[in-house]
Design a protein that fits this description.
Blueprint lengths: L5 H13 L3 H20 L4 H12 L10 H4 L7 H7 L2 H11 L4 H9 L21 H15 L11 H10 L7 H9 L1 H8 L2
The structure holds fe (ii) ion (FE2).
The site of fe (ii) ion (FE2) has 5 residues, from loops.
Length: 195
């Protein structure tokens, strides 16, 4: 486990967040809060929580490199536009690598759309790989927030609907231990998301 040095990464963090659109920035903050809360309940060490905090905050940093006209489009995206969006974990990994955020943080960013079983997700993975626990937590926090917020192309879904989806995909798309924690701590989860 690499433990981030906040002094070293402070300027990289500021630079990374500065380029994000407003919706992605606010989504990233909610995902960070939710991910860290899940991590604390799961008993992660302080070093792991610090890495999780940074990785979850920056999970979508690669969206800086997706053209705004695609990212903010309010109508259905064409296949080739989705293909550009699906590259954002790779773009984010390249950014994190360039500013030396550390291997575990870089993998959180690269793997945040990767399935737990290594079989699905966005491009960037030649071989099936199981994401780290920190990446699994970020993935679940990301999906819960994405489903329960309005998107340009659909209205927000209820917390109950998003939990049903988590359970349905537990063990395939999502890490089962993380899903279990979310189910067991629903009240706290909702309170964090409504901040
Ligand atoms: Fe993402």
């Amino acid at each position: 486990m690499d433990i981030v040095d906040f002094e070293v990464n402070a300027s990289a963090l500021a630079g990374a967040l500065a380029g994000l659109d407003r919706n992605t920035y606010r989504h990233s903050q909610r995902v960070q809060r939710l991910a860290v809360m899940i991590g604390k309940i799961m008993g992660l060490t302080q070093g792991e929580l610090t890495t999780l905090s940074l990785g979850s905050l920056l999970h979508d940093v690669g969206k800086k490199y997706v053209p705004r006209e695609i990212l903010l489009k309010e109508t259905t995206l064409a296949q080739e536009e989705w293909e550009v969006i699906e590259l954002h974990p790779v773009y984010g990994w390249e950014y994190a690598n360039a500013v030396n955020l550390g291997q575990v943080t870089q993998e959180i960013i690269l793997h945040h759309h990767l399935w737990f079983d290594g079989q699905g997700g966005y491009p960037g993975h030649e071989e099936p790989v199981c994401p780290s626990l920190l990446a699994q937590i970020t993935t679940v926090a990301d999906v819960v927030d994405a489903m329960t917020q309005d998107r340009p192309y659909r209205r927000a879904l209820s917390v109950e609907t998003s939990l049903d989806y988590l359970q349905e995909k537990s063990g395939s798309q999502f890490g089962p231990d993380v899903v279990e924690i979310v189910i067991q701590n629903l009240a706290e989860i909702v309170s964090v998301m409504n901040v």
